[in-house]
Design goal:
Radius of gyration: 21 Å
Largest sheet: 4 strands, mixed
Strand order of the largest sheet: 1-4-5-8
Number of strands: 10
CATH architecture of the largest domain: Up-down Bundle
CATH class of the largest domain: Mainly Alpha
Helix content: 40-55%
Order of helices and strands: HHHHHHEEEEEEEEHEEHHHH
Distance between the termini: 32 Å
Bound molecules: flavin-adenine dinucleotide
Length: 393
């Protein structure tokens, strides 16, 4: 295994760091969605690491994607979801599973952030259990019609393009699912913003779909293959969620080191007390271990090898780690941790999502344990995608 970042990966990681210092940190207090920042990130190629040049990318791979995502999340964890939506789960899923027409229409525009995307799995009665999705899809003349409600959709209020998972027969459970690309600029698509605890740069919405129309060429995979499409999308999404967790854990650590080295109590810097040192050591270890696990998952994907098990372990570990590390940062800051003037209260609010998004901690543990117990092996041969998109002219 070799997770060393190549010269070009280090260069784009450095650009992401400069961008964060120049553009993200100065506006961090705004705590809202900033379309101009997203456009700039698209123009700078931050979402394109995993894509061939034909689709607006650099072909640097998933390891590079992880490093860039980590860097941006270190400045604002709320921007991390864009790496998933603009840099993986929406355009990558269309690239892998879409028709030629769908690829041409959407992938490049998403990667360059000219258009914004969202992924719609979750519903009021279907969260961890995707096979119980109730949103319906049916064929009508030359298009499909979708009806139903989605919840907790990141980018939901701003997305131009959505991948919607829906069923043509709910009694068939996961075998009845389809995935389709929906253009949101139509009267039947109605988003309603959901207020939330953290990740304020990432707007979340409930979506109400009433006779939403989808051209037939926008189906991803075959009729009834939506569950397979979802599983590949979630595996990839776990790379950016894990990477975001590392960035945030690193931010907690950076802030804690700085504070411990300036705060004096009982006549000494608090960094001189062994109990505080112990906390810092734990933060370093959790952050580094998360980084190695996530990079292993990204690297395996770059090698075209199965990585479902490894990225589930990584996402689970990094999600638990960042939640603990954010709590430790609050401890190091003492009362100041509670202040809106210090950054760690935001880190604390932002950390919790990493135990939920792209599969909860319990769902990751089920996958990991079922694999270990030989109940259900997680890593199967890589699914054959409909065509080799890398050879497309
Ligand atoms: C900020 C944010 C952004 C999100 N963005 C998106 C998005 O863009 N698109 C999207 O589709 N969804 C999104 N989600 C939804 C997210 O994917 C779901 O919240 C998540 O999958 C869990 O589903 P749920 O909330 O319905 O919880 P539930 O599935 O109801 O789970 C509740 C609890 O029960 C546990 N549980 C459930 N089943 C089992 C089981 N079999 N064994 C053991 N424990 C179990 C869970 O681990 C959890 O602790 C987002 C959520 C948040 C908070």
């Amino acid at each position: 295994m070799d997770f060393d970042l190549k010269k070009e990966h280090l260069a784009i990681q450095k650009e992401a760091r400069f961008f964060s210092e120049r553009e993200v940190i100065p506006r961090i207090k705004e705590e809202e969605f900033k379309r101009d920042l997203v456009s700039k990130m698209g123009e700078m190629g931050f979402f394109g690491c995993a894509f061939p040049e034909k689709f607006g990318g650099t072909d640097y791979g998933f390891l590079a994607h992880s490093a860039v995502c980590e860097e941006i999340s270190r400045a604002d964890s709320g921007l991390r979801s864009l790496f998933n939506l603009q840099g993986l789960t929406v355009p990558y899923t269309i690239m892998e599973w879409g028709t030629d027409e769908a690829r041409e229409k959407y992938v490049k525009k998403l990667v360059l952030a000219e258009k914004l995307g969202c992924t719609c799995f979750s519903e009021p009665n279907a969260g961890s259990d995707l096979a119980s999705i109730e949103t319906t899809i049916e064929g009508k003349n030359d298009h499909y019609i979708i009806n139903g409600n989605k919840t907790w959709i990141s980018n939901g209020t701003v997305a131009d393009i959505a991948i919607v998972y829906a069923t043509f027969d709910s009694s068939k459970k996961h075998k009845g699912l389809c995935a389709a690309v929906v253009e949101t600029d139509q009267p039947g698509w109605k988003p309603k913003e959901t207020p939330k605890l953290g990740d304020k740069a990432s707007p979340i919405a409930e979506i109400f779909m009433d006779d939403v129309q989808v051209p037939k060429e926008n189906l991803l995979g075959g009729w009834g293959e939506g569950f397979k499409v979802a599983m590949t999308a979630l595996d990839r999404g776990r790379i950016s969620v894990g990477s975001g967790a590392i960035g945030l854990a690193q931010a907690c650590l950076d802030a804690s080191v700085q504070y411990a080295n300036q705060r004096v109590q009982f006549g000494k810097l608090i960094s001189e007390y062994q109990l505080v040192k112990g906390t810092i050591a734990e933060m370093v270890s959790l952050t580094e271990a998360s980084r190695l696990l996530v990079r292993q998952g990204a690297w395996l994907n770059d090698q075209d090898r199965p990585f479902t098990r490894e990225i589930a372990i990584a996402k689970y570990f990094a999600g638990e780690a960042v939640t603990r590390v954010a709590g430790m940062a609050m401890e190091v800051y003492g009362g100041m941790g509670y202040s809106l003037d210090a950054p760690v209260e935001r880190y604390y609010r932002d950390a919790k999502i990493y135990q939920v998004g792209e599969g909860t901690a319990n769902i990751m543990r089920l996958l990991i344990a079922n694999d270990a117990l030989n109940i259900k092996k997680a890593n199967r041969p890589r699914l054959k995608v409909p065509s080799d998109f890398r050879d497309l002219e």
